[in-house]
Design brief:
323 residues; membrane; mainly alpha
Length: 323
C-alpha cells in the first residue's frame, strides 16, 4: 500500500502538466464536477499545498537566506519588478478587458511557484538558490502582492490591501510555518520521510482541484464567448511567462551569476504561484469572474513551460558536451 502511494506520487510529479490539463478538459465537459471548490474550500486546498511545501523545508533551506543575501536580494528584486512590470505592459499593449487584466496582473504580483524548485533541479540549476528565492518571495508576498496590486490595478478596481495581506498570510505563511515546525520536530522519526514522499502527489492533486474549480466557475462564460476568449487569454499568459524567463535570465547575467544561477533565476522569475493568484482572484474579484481565467491557464501552462525550459537547458548541455 505504502509503495503504491509513493509510486502514484512520483507519477503525478513526473506528469503534473498532463494531469492538470486532463482535469481541466474533463471539467470542461462535466462543469459541475468541481462546483464544490469555491470560496473557503479553495482557500483550504491552497493552504494544504503550502503545507506540503513547508513539510519539505528544513532549517538549512532558510540558512541560505542568511548565507547568500546578495543572491536572494537580486532574485527578490527581479521577482517583484519584472513579472508585475511585464504584466502591466501586456495589459496596456493588448488593451485587455478589466477582468482579464486583473487576472494577469495578479499572477504577475504573486510570489514564485513551488514547482520551480523541481525544475531547477532538473536543469542542473542552483537548487539551494531556488529554494531560497521561493522562501524569500513567499515571505515577502503578504506585503508585496497587495502593494503591487494597488500600484498596477488600483485604477481598475479598489484593492483592499489590508484584507489581501491577511488572506495571503493565512494561506501561505501560516501553513508553511506549521509544515516547517513539523519537519523540525519529527524529521528524525522513521515515518516522516515516508510522509514527505507523498507530498508532491498531494500538491499536484490539490492544484488540479483548484484548476477544476476555476473551469467550473468560468465554464458558461467560456462557452458563451467561444474558443477565441481562451486563445486570446492563453496568448497573454504565454507572453507573460516567456518574457519572465528571458528577463529573469538577463537579470542573472547582469548580476554576473554563474550558468546554474542564471537558469535558476530565469525559472524562479518566470514561474509564478498561480494557485495563490487563483484563490485571491476568487476571493477579491468575485464580481469579475473571468479574472480567474488567466490564473487557471497559468497554473497549467507554467508547469508545462517550466518542464520544456528545463529540457532545453539539458539539451544545450548535451549538445555542447559532445562538441
Amino acid at each position: 500500500m505504502l509503495k503504491s502511494l509513493q509510486s502514484i506520487s512520483r507519477w503525478l510529479s513526473n506528469y503534473t502538466s498532463a494531469f492538470i490539463i486532463g482535469i481541466a478538459v474533463v471539467t470542461f465537459f462535466f462543469p459541475h464536477l468541481f462546483d464544490w471548490v469555491r470560496g473557503k474550500t479553495q482557500t483550504v486546498i491552497l493552504g494544504i499545498i503550502m503545507l506540503t511545501m513547508g513539510l519539505t523545508l528544513s532549517t538549512n533551506d532558510f540558512k541560505v537566506l542568511a548565507k547568500r543575501p546578495l543572491d536572494i536580494f537580486v532574485g527578490a528584486c527581479a521577482q517583484f519588478i519584472i513579472m508585475p512590470g511585464i504584466a502591466y505592459l501586456l495589459v496596456r499593449v493588448w488593451r485587455l478587458e478589466p477582468a482579464l487584466a486583473l487576472g494577469i496582473l495578479l499572477v504577475g504580483c504573486c510570489p514564485g511557484g513551488v514547482s520551480s524548485n523541481v525544475m531547477s533541479f532538473l536543469c542542473r540549476g542552483d537548487v539551494a538558490f531556488s529554494v531560497g528565492m521561493t522562501c524569500a518571495s513567499t515571505i515577502l508576498a503578504p506585503f508585496m502582492t497587495p502593494f503591487l496590486m494597488k500600484l498596477t490595478a488600483g485604477e481598475i478596481i479598489i484593492i483592499d490591501a489590508v484584507r489581501m495581506f491577511i488572506d495571503i498570510f493565512i494561506v501561505t505563511i501560516f501553513p508553511i510555518a506549521i509544515g516547517c515546525m513539523l519537519n523540525y520536530f519529527y524529521s528524525k522519526r522513521d515515518v516522516f520521510p515516508k510522509i514527505q514522499s507523498f507530498m508532491p502527489g498531494v500538491s499536484v492533486i490539490c492544484l488540479a482541484f483548484i484548476v477544476g474549480g476555476v473551469i467550473s466557475t468560468v465554464h458558461d462564460k467560456l462557452v458563451a464567448r467561444g474558443f477565441y476568449l481562451f486563445i486570446w487569454t492563453f496568448a497573454v499568459v504565454f507572453c507573460h511567462n516567456t518574457l519572465g524567463y528571458i528577463m529573469g535570465y538577463l537579470s542573472g547575467k547582469f548580476a554576473g551569476f554563474s550558468i546554474a544561477k542564471k537558469r535558476t533565476i530565469s525559472i524562479e522569475v518566470g514561474m509564478q504561484n498561480a494557485g495563490l493568484a487563483t484563490v485571491l482572484a476568487g476571493n477579491f474579484f468575485a464580481a469579475q469572474p473571468l479574472a480567474v481565467l488567466p490564473c487557471a491557464i497559468s497554473c497549467a501552462w507554467h508547469s508545462i513551460s517550466g518542464t520544456i525550459l528545463a529540457g532545453l537547458y539539458l539539451k544545450w548541455d548535451q549538445t555542447h558536451d559532445h562538441q
